């Protein structure tokens, strides 16, 4: 039987704070080929998660917020925000993202932690599964994109110049 303590999650948050990407994960499934992928993820504010999708049929994702505050943004194919869900103790705790749905997460609280469950096996994302209309990590507009995502509401569309700077 596997068991995980608050100290295990605190250690993961420490790793996230020390990571250049300001996030860290711990797989709790045995191997990448497992039919169900389960992992803890620790996030820190200022982590940038480029909008992406899981285009394989049946590749949904279920997020359960354990601690902190995240915003989940859902987009259409052009970068228009379709939905924004606040994951927080006093709001939504669990959300399931359908397959082939453009999404990103924004972290607002230090020590934010979530449990992610999704069908396996793990498949390395293809370049087409990262939004061309959003900057890649460590590009000049990454900080501006994170700020935009932090405030974006349904109906807002990402700035057009990011599409030319994301490669």
Question: Your description of this structure?
Answer:
Helices cover 16% and strands 32% of the residues. It has 167 residues and is an alpha+beta fold. It has one domain (6-154): Jelly Rolls. The strands form 2 sheets. It has a 5-stranded antiparallel sheet with strand order 1-2-8-3-6, covered by helices on one side. A 3-stranded antiparallel sheet has the order 5-4-7, covered by helices on one side. A hairpin with an 8-residue loop joins strand 1 and strand 2 (36-43). The longest helix has 13 residues, at 6-18. The protein starts with 5 loop residues before the first helix and ends with a helix.
Outline of this structure?
With 167 residues, the chain is of the alpha+beta class.
């Amino acid at each position: 039987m596997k068991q995980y303590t608050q100290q295990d999650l605190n250690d993961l948050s420490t790793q996230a704070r020390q990571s250049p990407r300001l996030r860290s994960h711990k797989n709790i499934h045995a191997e990448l080929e497992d039919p169900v992928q389960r992992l803890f993820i620790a996030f820190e504010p200022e982590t940038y998660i480029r909008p992406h999708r899981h285009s394989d049929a049946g590749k949904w994702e279920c997020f359960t917020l354990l601690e902190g505050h995240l915003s989940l943004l859902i987009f259409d194919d052009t970068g228009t925000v379709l939905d924004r869900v606040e994951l927080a103790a006093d709001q939504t705790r669990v959300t399931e993202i359908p397959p082939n749905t453009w999404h990103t997460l924004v972290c607002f609280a230090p020590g934010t932690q979530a449990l992610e469950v999704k069908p396996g096996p793990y498949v390395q994302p293809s370049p087409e599964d990262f939004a061309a209309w959003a900057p890649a990590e460590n590009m000049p507009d990454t900080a501006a994109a994170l700020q935009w995502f932090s405030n974006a509401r349904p109906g807002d569309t990402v700035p057009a110049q990011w599409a030319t700077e994301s490669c």
